[in-house]
Specification:
By secondary structure, this protein is mainly α. It contains 7 helices and no strands. The termini are far apart.
């Protein structure tokens, strides 16, 4: 393993420069990949929503909504932290699957692969859930935040939905490696429900921002 790649795996995403992350992403290495990108995009959506709130909290015209706005800011701040943690978890989870799948068929460690596949599917599923949570925070904001930033609010929703859609791809790609049919079915069902919810709420946020 190249030295810079080993360092990237041990460095949390929030401690890497954006340029370094892009270089690592573009490299011919298994991680970071689509899972880390999905979580990072979700975090960008949460951060953009938080910016809208920063320009709304303290405005006299929005004073009646102050408690709601402050609570929304706290929730989006927490979501950013969670999503960045999930980006790191995805790198680790997929890295293990990649490692195990390359082992010879008679290697004793191959027995770990089904459980590793479950973990590799559950991390992006958690990313999807976090993004749906972000969208839930954004949904009531179009009418109670700074009207001049409605395009940013719409973009925040688009990013959160895109992250959820990307997460779904990362869930699905790991499903064939899950041997337990009931576990596989449960993860797939939850994935599709979260995907539908993300599209539904994002559509409502965009529609409200057009008004």
């Amino acid at each position: 393993m190249a030295g810079w790649y080993a360092r990237s795996m041990s460095t949390p995403l929030h401690e890497r420069s954006f340029g370094d992350f892009l270089e690592q992403l573009a490299a011919k290495t298994p991680t970071p990949g689509g899972g880390a990108v999905a979580s990072a995009v979700g975090a960008l959506g949460a951060a953009l929503g938080d910016m809208v709130l920063a320009y709304s909290v303290g405005k006299k015209s929005l004073a009646e909504h102050e408690p709601v706005l402050r609570e929304a800011a706290k929730r989006l701040g927490r979501a950013r932290v969670v999503l960045l943690e999930l980006a790191a978890e995805d790198e680790a989870a997929y890295g293990l699957v990649n490692e195990l799948s390359r082992l010879p068929a008679d290697d004793a460690r191959r027995v770990e692969l089904p459980a590793a596949s479950v973990a590799a599917a559950q991390v992006p599923l958690s990313c999807m859930a976090a993004c749906v949570g972000v969208l839930g925070v954004l949904e009531p904001l179009p009418g109670i935040t700074n009207h001049y930033l409605r395009s940013d609010l719409a973009i925040a929703a688009i990013l959160a939905e895109a992250a959820a859609r990307a997460g779904a791809w990362n869930v699905r790609v790991n499903l064939p490696g899950i041997e337990d049919v009931s576990v596989r079915g449960s993860i797939e069902t939850e994935c599709e429900a979260l995907l539908a919810r993300a599209a539904e709420v994002a559509g409502r946020v965009e529609g409200a921002c057009r008004g």
